[in-house]
Specification:
Largest sheet: 7 strands, parallel
Helix content: 40-55%
CATH topology: Rossmann fold
CATH superfamily: NAD(P)-binding Rossmann-like Domain
Radius of gyration: 17 Å
Number of domains: 1
Strand order of the largest sheet: 3-2-1-4-5-6-7
Strand content: 5-15%
Distance between the termini: 30 Å
Number of strands: 7
CATH class: Alpha Beta
Structural class: alpha/beta
Order of helices and strands: EHEHEHEHEHEHHHE
């Protein structure tokens, strides 16, 4: 059984994209509570600053960076700022995600398709490429791509979302293969439906989301952001030191049926 301090992130520096809201903000705050300094990256400057300020309020170091993860220039600048501020990076969470439109491949425009992939997949690629040199120089670290239960099973009219999240699962496996010798672990974390603003956009309100999406999970409810953040702590910490190239499902049993 792992010792309790195996889950600690004391002295670590974590970069979290999509940190301004939902699962990303829960991860950023939970990492800070576990002892990490946190770089909060989001396209919404005010949201990133609010989370960073909340971290500072309970005594941990944090910085907010405004960044479009689909922009190579933005990502390079964000990575440079993170390293300049903290000296190194030990943990990277690629959690930024766009609001994908519903649709089959017949419904989606090319611009819809490209935008979802630009944020969900290219963003993870660009940020990983920018952060890995510092992580390698520090002696290793943990990279976590936030995928989805729909990266391994399909949902109706979710063609681009399913494809992009499946791509992240494969990207993690490829990166794990390429960088294991450098003590870099790379995994995906795949949530089920979680009570965030994205569900409100999709269903209109949270009560409707709970009524329609909750029963699709064996636990008969939606997940909470903190439940995903706790799983991210596991993947980021030494508690998962023998785990790489894997997909951790935290989906309330969605994929079990």
């Amino acid at each position: 059984m792992a010792a309790p301090d195996a889950f600690a992130l004391t002295g670590k520096v974590a970069v979290v994209t999509g940190a301004g809201a939902g699962i990303g903000s829960a991860i950023a705050l939970t990492f800070a509570e576990a002892g990490a300094a946190v770089v909060c990256i989001d396209s919404d400057a005010g949201a990133a600053k609010a989370v960073s300020d909340a971290i500072a309020n309970f005594g941990m170091r944090s910085v907010a960076i405004t960044c479009d993860v689909s922009s190579e220039t933005d990502v390079r600048a964000a990575a440079d700022t993170a390293v300049k501020e903290f000296g190194t990076v030990n943990i990277l969470v690629n959690g930024a995600a766009g609001n994908d439109p519903n649709g089959t491949v017949l419904d989606l425009s090319l611009s819809d398709w490209n935008r979802v992939f630009a944020v969900n997949v290219t963003g993870a690629f660009l940020m990983s490429r920018a952060i890995l040199p510092s992580m390698i120089a520090a002696g290793g670290g943990s990279v976590i791509h936030i995928a989805s239960q729909l990266g391994s099973v399909a949902g109706p009219k979710r063609a681009v979302y399913c494809a992009s999240k499946g791509a992240l699962i494969q990207l993690a496996k490829a990166m794990a293969t390429d960088h294991a010798a450098q003590n870099i672990r790379v995994n995906t974390l795949s949530p089920g439906a979680v009570e965030t603003g994205r569900l409100v956009l999709r269903f209109g309100d949270m009560d409707t989301a709970r009524r329609l999406a909750g029963p699709k999970h064996l636990l008969r409810r939606l997940g909470q952001p903190i439940e995903i953040a706790r799983a991210a702590i596991f993947l980021a910490s030494d508690a998962s030191s023998f785990m790489t190239g894997a997909d951790l499902l935290v989906d309330g049993g969605y994929n079990a049926t």
